[in-house]
Amino acid sequence: LKMANFLRWTPCLYLATATVAAGFDPSVEYELVAHLRQRNLDRLETLFWEISDPHHERYLQHLTLEETASLIGAADEDLEEAKSWLLSLGARPGSLHVSSLRDTVSATVLHPADGLLSEHQIRDQLRSLKRRQPRSVDFVLRRDRADIVDIDSAKRPKLQLGKEDTGADYTISNIKGAYGMATDLQATNDDTLQMVWGPGTFGYSKMQLAAHKAMQCPLLNMNKVKFDTDNHGEGGGDNYGEGNLDTKMIASFGLNVSTLVSNTNTSASTEEGSGFGQALLDFITELSSRKVIPQVLSMSLGSLASASCDMLCREAAKKGHSEADCNDFLQQQRQVCMFLSEGQTERINVAFKVLGARGVSIFGSSGDGGSHFSFGRFEGGEMADVLNEIACEFQMPVFPTSSPYIVSVGGTMWSGSSSHPVTWAGFGGGSGGGFSWQFPMPKHQTRVVEAYLAKTSGLPPLSSFNNSGRAYPDISAVGVQGTSQSCPIMAGLFSMVTDQRLSAGLPPLGFLAPRLWQIAEHYPNEAFEEVTEGNSKTSCDNGFPSTKGWDPNTGWGRPVWSGIVKHFASDSSIKPVEERAERAVYYV
Description:
alpha/beta, eight-stranded mixed beta sheet, six-stranded mixed beta sheet, globular
């Protein structure tokens, strides 16, 4: 429905080409979207943490859409400047539209040429726009119907990953049983809403979902599962398999919760390459401006963080390879480096903060490559060998799961029986974890993580990771099909918690990591059962060991339903404000 390929210019400025599925005559029109500079971002940061801090008087006092727009939306003069600029480019006056958050202005522009346009032609146009864009505009997006853009990246062959045989033990009923969750527990509040998202071929098959319902989850209400765009997925791409898995898991564990399956961009460049980062940015920005938003969002897709990719190529240059050749090689790898820059991920984080401050709990898969890869080792000759050597020398975090503003979900499996969880390992990789190179460690993690690093033997070399960076994952669930399975399981489970809260007249949890870490530390094994076996090294010779309490493999461990209901479905575990002061320093 929306965008395709993007170009990097400065750390925070992007140009974009796009595809859009509805609304324009391809012979005459396309759409330009000006993303505007946002205001008061320091204040947004402060409010985000106050609203998320169980020991702050603003806890769970989520912002409305109008309050958020007033806080970060563009000033009136900036909006007018952006409108005037778009009009000067030939925009139809009646098509000008300002987003609800006042952070984008879009407009329909007359098409200047006949026939198919190449990506190269559109990028040339956007380069020209970049040189002329006003101060108020941060970056520009162009949206075209797919049938007027000749997208070169669509020629790249797609891989359809096969899943290893996970056996008959990991059924929905068995996994729920391992967590102490009744198989017939269903949501009852019509306002509870959960969502999964992905671009490219992402979607789900109603036939596959019906078969899953018949074999494993007879109470799954297929009428509650709906698409929120005209893009319903397409077989043959990796993301179609991801979408089917996401939908099955979140609908099975968030039983009878209204579920949105969202694909906002069908361009091939978003499936495995750098178009993904801008697709995520466009989606998360648009979602944060909606009047009605889900209380729970699950995101299974991601890749190595931009900082990790930059490090790989800097180190490769030291070994005699050009950074350009390294970057070209990485773009040919499957879902390895899909973000353009650290500036792009910072802008994505702003949207995460907006959603958290508005009451959305965002869950992200921790990755499938342990602490060294996004999935497994690189393949393809000398460059692959060099990058494998570098990746094993350093710990390489992934994104968006390493964002401090979402909850990261690792993977577990069973050893012998469901009563014996261990860190998931498979497909040549394992449950992702580690420390961000880019984002600092939030205060709610500091005490516990410092203790882990001080007391745990067999750690990787200190020079191989950022011991002051955001540590992940936070928690884990069954991930025998990768953390793309564990993330929607955990999201669905917290949708059931949200359902109970809404029915009791309580607000949704929003960003729940500070509360989660408080509960896990002060009530060990009540809400999350620790997983003490495993290591993030995968095929390398170093990694983070699992241990009691929190670790960078499975976080605080797997869910215990009775404890989660006790500590999250009500607020009885939260002390009154006047009793919080002595421990408030523990939280950001």
